[in-house]
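User: Just a sanity check before I run the rest of the batch. Below are the C-alpha cells for the first item. I only need the designed sequence back.
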C-alpha cells in the first residue's frame, strides 16, 4: 500500500526543476552596453563592458565610464573629452586620434592600448598603467592641467 501511495504521489507532484546557474558570459552580457549609439554624450555608463565594440567617431564626451571595461574596442576618432574613466580597463583598445582632453584616467589599466595622435591636453593619467612606449609617446606631447582634478598631464604621466 505504501508503494502504491508513493507511486501516486510521484505522478501528482510536479517534477522538481533543476537549479538554474548563470554563467560568466551571461554575467558579462548583463553588464554589456546594449544600445550603442553614436551620440552617448553625458550618459552614465559606469561598469559597462564594451567587448570588441566598434565606437569609432562616437561622442562620449562628459560620459561617466568609471569602472568600464573596453576589450579590443575601437575608439578611434571618438570624443571622450571630459569623460571620467577612473578605474576603467582598456585592454588592446584603440584611442588613435581620439579627443581625450580633460578626461580622467586615474587608476586605469591601459595595457596594449594605442593613443597615436590622441588629444591629451589636460588629461589626468594619475596611477594609470600604460605600456612604456605609449607613456613615452604621450609624454612627448603632454600639456595642460585637468580642470576637474587640477593635475598636470605631464605630472600624471610621470614624464621626465
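Assistant: Here's the designed sequence for the first item:
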Amino acid at each position: 500500500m505504501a508503494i502504491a501511495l508513493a507511486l501516486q504521489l510521484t505522478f501528482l507532484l510536479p517534477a522538481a526543476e533543476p537549479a538554474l546557474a548563470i554563467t560568466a558570459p551571461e554575467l558579462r552580457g548583463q553588464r554589456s552596453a546594449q544600445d550603442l549609439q553614436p551620440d552617448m554624450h553625458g550618459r552614465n555608463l559606469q561598469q559597462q563592458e564594451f567587448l570588441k565594440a566598434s565606437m569609432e567617431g562616437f561622442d562620449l564626451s562628459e560620459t561617466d565610464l568609471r569602472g568600464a571595461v573596453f576589450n579590443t574596442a575601437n575608439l578611434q576618432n571618438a570624443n571622450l573629452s571630459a569623460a571620467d574613466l577612473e578605474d576603467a580597463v582598456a585592454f588592446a583598445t584603440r584611442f588613435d586620434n581620439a579627443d581625450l582632453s580633460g578626461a580622467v584616467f586615474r587608476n586605469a589599466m591601459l595595457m596594449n592600448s594605442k593613443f597615436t595622435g590622441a588629444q591629451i591636453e589636460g588629461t589626468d593619467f594619475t596611477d594609470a598603467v600604460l605600456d612604456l612606449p605609449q607613456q613615452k609617446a604621450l609624454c612627448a606631447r603632454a600639456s595642460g592641467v585637468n580642470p576637474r582634478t587640477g593635475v598636470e598631464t605631464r605630472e600624471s604621466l610621470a614624464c621626465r
